Amino acid sequence: MVDEPADICIDAPYVDYEIFGAGFMTGQCQGCHASTTPDRQEAPEEFFFDGVDKVQQYAMAILAATTGDDPIMPPAGGVDEYDRYLLEVWLTCWDGR
Predict the structure, then answer these.
(1) Distance between CA atoms of 38 and 12, rounded to whole angstroms?
(2) Which of 7, 25, 73, 85 is the Cys-Cys partner for 65 at CB 3.0 to 4.6 Å?
(3) Where do the structural domains in the chain lie, given as residue ranges?
(4) In whole angstroms, what is the distance from residue 36 CA to residue 50 CA?
(5) Angle of helix 59-66 relative to helix 81-92, nearest 10 degrees?
(6) How far apart are alpha carbons 92 and 31 in whole angstroms?
(7) Global pTM?
């Protein structure tokens, strides 16, 4: 049986790593969450997002920290609601893209 898509996925725009995820992760996350970042600002060592595979591995943790009523990441803020929505769509509706 195929899982039903999450409600957010039904009318969501198409979002994938190439057209959204890579730029978002580079601009908003990899300053602290890249394996090559010299000053990770106390980011946990296991949380590095150097590519789509690592992002997929930690998708649920990323969602928990970046979406919802009181997101904690990135700690300096600066991400508008629409980009947070696109991030949630991308990570929730992910089918290998």
Answers:
(1) 37
(2) 73
(3) 13-92
(4) 9
(5) 160
(6) 23
(7) 0.87
